[in-house]
Structure formats: structure tokens, C-alpha cells
Amino acid sequence: MLAQLREGGVSLMLTTHQLEEAEARCERIVIIDHGKVVASGSLAELVAQSLGTARVAVIRTSRAMAQPFELPAGAEIDQDGRTIRTAVAAGGGNLPELTRLAALHGGGIDDIAMHGARLQDVFINLTGRELRE
Fold it and tell me: Which of 4, 22, 30, 65 is the most buried (most CB within 10 A)?
């Protein structure tokens, strides 16, 4: 229904915590944190402003990582304790060090994925935390 309305030339304002939906449907996005606008623009503009041209690496370990240990700047461990996320510059940057740390503290690596930045990555970068249901 939303797609049909847009095709008909209707402007829509969508308020959602479903970042994938906002990414897929919206031409302009406004991120609000604690009642304040922290960023606005197209997805490409938000990515460029907050993360630059870096890609995002996600490393998932076989078990929760034993902590504390120091991560390279910009890397963070998700709440599950098994996932490290970080922006990676062209050429791989700190990826070898992250995989070494993940294997050492997480009992082995289950998965490594690289992707272009998504709205969730922008949100985490701007607010410092993941969106919660």
C-alpha cells in the first residue's frame, strides 16, 4: 500500500524503529535520539557523514568473548558478546587484528561478513547503541 501511494505521488512520513523498512522505503531519514534530531538526509548522505566510505566488518565467534580486552578504536562488541562490528577502510585495515582477538577471546570464529554501511550501522555510530524493540 505504501509503495502504491508513493507511486501515485503522495508524500509519506513514516515513523518506525524498523531500520530495514526505513532504509528500503524512505528517500530522507531523520534519526532522533532522546528526543533530539542527531542526523538527517538520504541514506547515502548519512553514511558519508557518519561512516565515510568504509565498509563494515562483522565477526561472529563460537561463544561469548571473555572480557575485558582492548579492541581497536571504532570496534565494538554487540550485546550478545559474540559479535564484533567495526568500520574497515579499503585494504582491510584492522581486520587481521580483530580476527586474531575474536579467535583468542571467543573460542574460534563462526562467521566473518563484510558489507556496505547500512542504516543500523549509522544509527549505532551516531547514538552509541543498538535499537531495542
Answer: 65
